[in-house]
Amino acid sequence: MNERVAPPSTGAAHTPAQAAQPQTGTVRLTAAQALVRYLAAQRVAAEDGSGRTEPLFGGVFAIFGHGNVAGMGEALYQHRHELPTFRAHNEQAMAHSAIAYAKAHMRRRMMAVTTSIGPGATNLVTAAALAHVNRLPVLLLPGDIFVSRAPDPVLQQVEDFHDGGISANDAFKPVSRYFDRIMHPAQLLTALPRALRVLTDAALCGPVTLALPQDVQAAAYDYPVDFFMPRLVTFHTPAPVESEIDAVLGTLRAAQRPMIVAGGGVLYSGATEALHAFAHAHGIPVAETQAGKSALAWDDPLNAGAMGVTGSPAANALARDADCVLAVGTRLQDFTTGSNSLFTQAQVIGINANAFDGLKHGALVVEADAKRALETLGAKLEGWRAAADWSERARSLAAQWRDTVSRLTNAPQHEVGQGSTLPYDADVIGAVQRSAANSPANDIVVCAAGTLPAELHKLWRAGRPGAYHVEYGYSCMGYEIAGGLGAKLAHPEREVIVMVGDGSYLMMNSELATSVMLGAKMVVVVLDNRGYGCINRLQQACGGAPFNNLFEDCVQGPAGAPQIDFAAHARALGTHAEHVANVGELEAAMQRARAADRTYVIVIDTDPARTTDEGGWWWEVAVPEVSQRGAVREARAKYEAQIAARRRHDGTT
């Protein structure tokens, strides 16, 4: 039987007034049935502000097997119309898709995933870590061993020699914001509300794991009927505390050269308009992290571009001279701070819903939602502005950088991809963006690992908030195609363009088939540099010999390195696909891809050595203290000089 399901973002809509009145009595359900029924009952206000409501959970990705097919499988079948189930091909990939769906919805809608025990469950651990690092909600429902232990040990069970209560699912504990093992059906009455609070709390947000022993899934219990009544979920965002606001006002008013570092929290809190208003009212330049890119329009006069190791020369020059940095909704990872070397001279003010992140870099912390904090600070700072020459310098540097981006992404065609000259990432980015001339704001670009995130961070012109979807908190190879699928399910009306290197493509590509099956059309651009080009360059920058990264530098059998036909492979998974010879052909292929009826894959050979010279900053990668290679010893000397320079700036010894 073939069933068609509506896209998860177009679920049945209701107004809050239609919510049913509380009911009394009980209903006998299995634990699995109760869990699914509870998830299906959760509602959220529609993002269009119409007053309608939508399902909080857009669906459940499932790969059935030993440990979830009987219990969860039967329950999901019963609720397949109000909570659609999507079949995937890899557990890690389907969790990536679910995480991307939540990211594309700015954490206001989400998905669950269910797996078997054993390898099905542990395949989710990488995705759980990704969601944890990126502060993104996903509900993980791995199957687990029998609570009764009657058939112990079961197929795929991981036994611990010292603790009989441990299963493979304990691996989720360090990468979950909330973990529970449901040992009795009644536990759901407390575990599910707790899980929901974590998933919808700006400070706690991250992955929730509910391990589901297979005998408990099938066990019945008399649940209160009221537990399953439709509920309108509200999202918890902390308001700024007056004492914390007052504590930073003096620092801000005294600043002559302030700047803002906008992180993902700006987008998730819906603070883009507040950010624009605050920056322009006070003449403060803005730089964007990977998660925060698109928080401010790319052509805004005060947008200095990307920040940090993959940053623009404009943003990094301003950061080096700023006397105050407002870190808004960012966890200040090393790529943003240049391994804590970039703005050591500045007083940092951390505005973050989570104090753990706000306190970093020795910051004065305002533990609050970004939108509410910026609005409160803006009202109290009325009339104050940064030094006029600082604001003017920021506008000038930002304009110069926009001109440079235009030059880099629009190189003359005769210089790109002709003869022996291969294009590099900037050439491909330019071609992709030119192909959207009629509706540039409609595109969502998706990426995750390798060279591309650096080039996209610098060069992609995001048309509107959320148009830039790059997972760089965990920088997980293999996220790209699965993430693109999640973004498309979240926004079926928009063009989702996945940009992926050949290395990441080979790691995880099976959700191309899922995208075809679901009718979730994406455009996938594969940049083939014949290996791990990014790490090959890093290896040599650290003095190492080219080794085990590009195919040509790997151990090979008599047949040599594989000649991979990515287009043929993609066609075998059901997509349209073609290989293009140069950037001109790429632009033409992009037009065919945009007009296509299903996922379309375009492959282009690129230069593994070349990157954009402009911008960037030091990134600390430890170089061996001793080596027989002179190049390593030279790299070590440079490394030690950078460490010494950082110590001089931050005052450490």
For the terminal residues, how far apart are their CA atoms? 70 Å
CATH architecture of the largest domain: 3-Layer(aba) Sandwich
Instruction: Evaluate the radius of gyration.
Output: 25 Å
Shape: globular
Domain tally: 3
Q: Pairing-aware structural class of the strands and helices?
A: alpha/beta
In spatial order, strands of the major sheet run 5-4-6-7-9-8
Can you give the helix content as a percent range? 25-40%
Mean pLDDT score, rounded? 94
CATH domain class of the largest domain: Alpha Beta
Proportion in β-strands: 15-25%
The major pleated sheet works out as:
6 strands, parallel
Within CATH, the superfamily of the largest domain carries the name Thiamin diphosphate (ThDP)-binding fold, Pyr/PP domains
CATH topology of the largest domain: Rossmann fold
The poorly predicted ranges are 9-19
The total beta strand count reads 23
Q: How many helices does DSSP assign?
A: 24
InterPro entries: DHS-like_NAD/FAD-binding_dom (IPR029035), Myo_inos_IolD (IPR030817), THDP-binding (IPR029061), Thiamin_PyroP_enz_cen_dom (IPR012000), Thiamin_PyroP_enz_TPP-bd_dom (IPR012001), TPP-bd_CS (IPR000399), TPP_enz (IPR045229), TPP_enzyme_TPP-bd (IPR011766)
Family: Belongs to the TPP enzyme family.
EC number: 3.7.1.22
Protein name: 3D-(3,5/4)-trihydroxycyclohexane-1,2-dione acylhydrolase (Decyclizing)
